[in-house]
Each structure stands twice: as C-alpha cells, then as structure tokens.
Amino acid sequence: MLRSFSGVLVGLLISVAAYGQQAQLYRYVDDKGVTVLGNRVPPEFVSRGYEVLDSNGRVREVIPAAPTPEELQATREAREAQARQRQSDTTLLRLYSSQADLDRAHARQLAQIESLIQSARGEIDGVQDRREELQQRAAVQERAGREIDAQILQELAHADDETERLERLIEAKQLEIKEVRASFVHQRARLGYLLGANDSES
Fold it and tell me: Cα–Cα 20 to 30 A to 201, which of 59, 84, 122, 162?
C-alpha cells in the first residue's frame, strides 16, 4: 500500500515538474498603456501584439501587432508599384537593346511631334490669309454702305475658332515635348541600370 502511494506521489511530482517546465506567460500592453504579465492574452489585446515567455521569464516568441488598415493599404500600393515597375522594365528591355536604340527612338518621337506643330502653324497661316481676304470683302461692303454678308461673318467666326483650335493643339504638343523629354531622361537611366544589372548577372 505504501509502495503504491509512493508511486502515485512520484508521478504527481513528475507531472507538476513537467507542467512547470511547459508553463508560459504572456506579456502585452492593455488599453491604458500598462504592460501586463499573465497566463493569457485577452482577445481585445491580441491584435496589439504580445510576447510569449517561458517559466523563467525568457522571451520565447514575439507576436507582432496586426497591421493597421493604413499599413495594409500602403503595403498593397507598394506591391502594385513594384508590379508596374517590373512590367515597365520588361517592356523597356523588349523595345531597346541599348541606350543608343532608345536615343534614336526618342529623336524620332520628337521629330514627329515637331512636324505636327509645324503643320499646325502652316494651317494657322492659311486660315489667317483667308481671314484677311474675308475682312477685305467685308470692308468693301461696309464702304459701299451695304450690310456685311452673313456668309462672310460666319466664315470669319469659323476662322477664329479654327485658329484657336490650332493654337491649343500647338500648346498641347509643346507640353508633350516636355513630357517626352522628362520621360526619356528617366527611361535612359533606368535602361542603363537594367542593362548593367543584366551584364553583372551574366
């Protein structure tokens, strides 16, 4: 009987010792900013992150705080930006095998825009010539004491509208030239980096 009781006691002592070795504590910060040490983390504080400690008070694991909605949004935006950059890099390398290729393409693009600007200026000159002719006809009618023909007035208004449209087109194309040049500087630097990175990897 005594032997049996001793065996049970030994078993209990071993179990208690094992429990003591496995016991762990949790350290977290409550809603008042106070650091709390306990055997569990209340659900409302889990998202703030906490530390898992062993029975000797040593940190076994650190559970980080859950990201805020703003941090999640920033992470998504960063990933999207990286994806766009990868796609842009792939396109750049597919189109140009060297910076010289990009230089030639850039020159062609600028030449095309400049050609459109020159064409628009030529059209403006033509419209203005037509407008002067219409004004002369209107002046003749006025000197003769006649009412200016409605067709002449309509064509004059159309000439003014057309001139304004062409001037807006020229302004837009001049702005496009600035944007193309700015983009070219970035693309050239990026292409040089990508080609250099590829050379170093090969």
Answer: 84
What's the whole-model pTM score? 0.61
DSSP string, 17-51: HHHHHH-EEEEEE-TTS-EEEESS--HHHHTT-EE
**38 in Cβ contact with 53 (< 8 Å):** no
DSSP conformation letters of 47-114:
TT-EEEEETTS-EEEEEPPPPPHHHHHHHHHHHHHHHHHHHHHHHHHHH-SSHHHHHHHHHHHHHHHH
Phi, psi of 39 (to 5 degrees): -90, 5
Evaluate whether 162 touches 128 at the Cβ level (below 8 Å). no
**Which of 55, 60, 56 has the alpha carbon at shortest distance from 23?**
55
Separation CA 104–CA 184 (nearest Å):
11
Q: Which residues contact 176 (CB under 8 A, 6 or more apart)?
A: 113
pLDDT tens track for 89-127: 999 999 999 999 999 999 999 999 999 999 999 999 999
